[in-house]
Design goal:
The chain has 116 residues and is of the alpha+beta class. The protein has three domains: 11-43, no CATH class; 48-85, no CATH class; 87-116. 49% of the residues lie in helices and 21% in strands. It contains three helices and four strands; from the N terminus they run ββββααα. The protein has helices spanning 48-58, 62-84, 93-115, and strands spanning 11-17, 20-25, 28-33, 39-43. A four-stranded antiparallel sheet has the order 1-2-3-4, with no helix packed on it. Strand 1 and strand 2 (20-25) form a beta hairpin. It is elongated and about 75 Å long. The chain starts with 10 loop residues before the first strand and ends with a helix.
Length: 116
């Protein structure tokens, strides 16, 4: 971008909104107020494992889609067969398991509602 500020980044996009110029790079974001001339530079670093996992979720390669579908189906089958196991005593699905199953459904729904 610029040698003065030691920013060596590829520009992805730029736009002007009201009096602000915003330039986005791959690892850098620059925001300049055009009236006052005050600028703010933000740099981003990729977290090693999380960035690769995010790339897999964003990519649409067929092998990842098949793998994730098979993995999801196997987790569903484990959950269903685990709930269907009949045991005697106080640890049965009727006495305690339904609460755990309900909690397993409620928490992800709450996260979807509040954080989306």
């Amino acid at each position: 971008m610029n040698d003065t500020f030691k920013i060596n980044d590829k520009i992805k996009r730029h736009f002007i909104k009201k009096d602000d110029l915003r330039i986005n790079g791959e690892n850098t974001e620059v925001e300049v107020n055009l009236k006052s001339g005050i600028a703010e530079i933000r740099t981003f670093k990729k977290t090693p494992i999380i960035s690769q996992l995010m790339f897999l979720h964003k990519s649409s390669s067929s092998w990842w889609i098949y793998y994730s579908d098979i993995f999801a189906l196997s987790l569903i089958s484990i959950a269903v067969t685990g709930a269907a196991i009949y045991t005697k005593g106080k640890f049965t699905f009727r006495s305690r398991g339904w609460r755990l199953a309900l909690a397993g459904l409620v928490f992800p729904l709450l996260f979807l509602i509040f954080f989306s």
